Amino acid sequence: MGMWKYLLKKEFKQYFRDPGTPGMVLSFPFLIILVFPFAANMEVRDVKLAIVDSDQSEQSVLLTEKCSSSGYFDVQSVTSIPGEAQTLMDKGKIDAILTIGNGFAKQLKNGSAMGDALPVGIKVNTVNGTRGSIGSAYLNACVSEFLMESAGISGMPSGSQVEIRESYRYNPYMDYKRFMIPAMIVIAVTMMCGFLPALNIVTEKEKGTIEQINVTPVSKIAFIVSKMVPYLCVAFFMVFTCLLLARIFFGFGVEGSLLDIGLFTFAHILVMSSFGLLVSNYSENTQQAMFVIWFFSMVFMLISGIFTPLNSMPKWARIVAGANPLTYFADAMRGIVLKGATLADTWKDLVALLGIGGLTTAWAVLSYHKTN
Amino acid sequence: MEEKSVVIRNLVKKFGNFTAVDNISFEVSKGEIFGFLGANGAGKTTAMRILCGLSRPTSGEGTVAGFRIKDQQESIKRHIGYMSQKFSLYPDLKVWENIELFGGIYGLNDRQIAAKTDSMLKALSMENARDMYIRDMPLGWKQKLAFSIAMVHDPEIVFLDEPTGGVDPVTRRNFWEMIYEAAGRDVTVFVTTHYMDEAEYCDRVSVMVDGRIEALGSPAELKETYGAKDMDGVFTKIAGRAERGE
């Protein structure tokens, strides 16, 4: 029908004439690829360490050196007085204490034949739990490596040893950026397609133009869908610009097919923009719409597996995540970008997204009343 | 028999316990200029929104342009023009773009829209304002343009809700010339206003008080009935009986 053409023309013109949005759309991909992954980095580096060396032997100095040269620790102090290190930790100046007790060198030489444990202690500050436990793991790894090496040097038979070799799949250098970029794209599409359409209809309500539209024979579907189309185009532009930037600046390619990414992006836009329009149907003014969208955005982002794994959440949170479109989009995007997942692997995500999207679109169209 | 554009019987609209429109009945003939007067809060806008298909009646019957107000709202919308007191063109679209949009919504094609745009701008002497944004236009221009756009599809009836609010006297006069010109083409004009000099220009006027129509007739008849020298006197006498405030 001819009406569609004129409505779409209107929406695109208004979109590009808005003083803020075109600039935002252009700058968002750069922010997402070049700024956010560094900020949303959860790698633990430079664990601040104090070493209490009561042994003062050649061996203990070697261990100290081993730890400080590993790159993970920032050795703040080496002392022989345990109380001093504890004071530093109490003040929050250090994250971990490595205690090398008296007799370390001697016992190391004799092996653990006597059955006694080596007098090495690790104490970590777990105010920040992640930092604490990762710091402790690093320290453990560092000490065991030292012990293995020294056992080799002294030619001691180390008995039957199990060698564990780790192999990192899909993200061999465990680069956090690689893991976060697909998720950042998910967040960007969500913001773009959730917030902006919500504000769009509410603005028409505030200006009174929607009344003029409601008194015309315009069809509800044409009106709602033509409002979604510009955001669809913009979201596609953003997703592929982000992937291109990730390729140019970090050399991250996409393992899977771009077509699959397009398909999922389309499904997610359907969900988010209809959700935004749905909110605006029930909101009388901009503040109200903003607040409701903001509330849902928080839930969408935090209970979705984007930042923290779903498996570690309680059951109720996993149920919430099951109704959250971001869960599926993020899962599929990570699968496709990092692992080269195909539709055979991700079809469940697609079905879930299309299901939620069909529901919200239908609801948005039905709850938009031309006659009250 | 004279052709009727609007026929309303026992129209009632309630919002909860509040009766905004209390059992009104009236008819408007084709080509008539019908003034719909009343103090603020008397129920004019509510009644008008029902006639335009923006609101459902609680009870009562009626037709607008031959379609039932109860269940044929979308058909009504195809045959009426509407201009609201809240100014309603898109401020971030240009003059020609607004004409194109509403022309397109009413089913005109590109060629028809182009012809309409030319003739409309010529009639309004706004040929030079074609590329002007609505937000940059003076209020009087906007109102005249909005009226013309409400008529872009040559509707049978046009509803004007306080079209001249805040407009200077010269522009108001121009505006009424446009209304007369439309009525001359047999378009029914349904207009609400607070200006009593404008009420004098109507063929017939009704005065609403507390959701009811208290008086209905030509300005001359009403002046005689109420013994007033002008419509201002008539209005003060009738509206003075109102019990509900704003």
Number of helices of chain A: 14
- Strand arrangement in the largest pleated sheet of chain B: 6-7-8-3-9-10
- The outline of chain B comes out as globular
Fraction in helix of chain A: 55-70%
Instruction: Compute the average pLDDT of chain B.
Output: 89
Separation, N- and C-terminal Cα atoms of chain B: 40 Å
Output the structural class of chain B: alpha/beta
The CATH homology group name of chain B: P-loop containing nucleotide triphosphate hydrolases
Number of helices of chain B: 9
Strand content of chain A: 5-15%
What is the H-and-E element order of chain B?
A: EEEHEEHEHHHEHEHEEHH
Global outline of chain A: elongated
- Report the strand count of chain A: 4
Helix content of chain B: 25-40%
What is the straight-line distance between the termini of chain A?
A: 26 Å
* CATH architectural arrangement of chain B: 3-Layer(aba) Sandwich
Strand content of chain B: 25-35%
Write the element-wise H/E pattern of chain A from the N-terminal end onward. Answer: HHEHEHEHEHHHHHHHHH
Task: Give the radius of gyration of chain B.
Answer: 18 Å
- Unreliable spans of chain A are 157-161
Could you walk me through the main structural features you see in this protein, from its secondary elements to its overall organization?
The complex is a heterodimer of chains A (372) and B (246). Chain A is α/β, with parallel strands linked by helices and 372 residues long. Chain A folds into two domains: 2-41 and 172-367, no CATH class; 47-153, abc type-2 transporter like domain (abc type-2 transporter like fold). Chain A is 66% helix and 6% strand. Chain A has 14 helices and four strands. Chain A has helices spanning 2-17, 21-39, 58-68, 82-90, 104-110, 129-153, 176-207, 209-214, 220-250, 258-282, 286-302, 315-322, 325-339, 343-367, and strands at 47-53, 73-79, 96-100, 120-124. Chain A has a four-stranded mixed β-sheet, sandwiched between helices. In chain A, α2 packs across α9 (220-250), α7 runs parallel beside α10 and α10 runs antiparallel to α13. The longest helix of chain A is centred in the middle third of the chain and has 32 residues, at 176-207. The model of chain A is unreliable at 157-161 (pLDDT under 50). Chain B is an alpha/beta fold. Chain B has helices at 44-51, 73-79, 95-105, 110-123, 139-150, 169-184, 196-200, 219-226, 231-239; strands at 4-15, 18-29, 33-38, 59-64, 67-68, 80-83, 157-161, 188-192, 204-209, 212-217. In chain B, the strands form two sheets. Chain B has a six-stranded mixed β-sheet with strand order 6-7-8-3-9-10, with helices on both faces. Chain B has a four-stranded antiparallel β-sheet with strand order 2-1-4-5, covered by helices on one side. In chain B, α8 (219-226) crosses α9 (231-239). The radius of gyration of chain B is 18 Å and the shape is globular. Chain B starts with a strand and ends in a 7-residue tail after the last helix. Chain A binds chain B through residues 2-3, 5-7, 9-10, 13-14, 17-18, 207-209, 211-218, 370-372, and chain B through 52-56, 73-74, 77-78, 80, 82, 84, 86-93, 97, 100-107, 109.
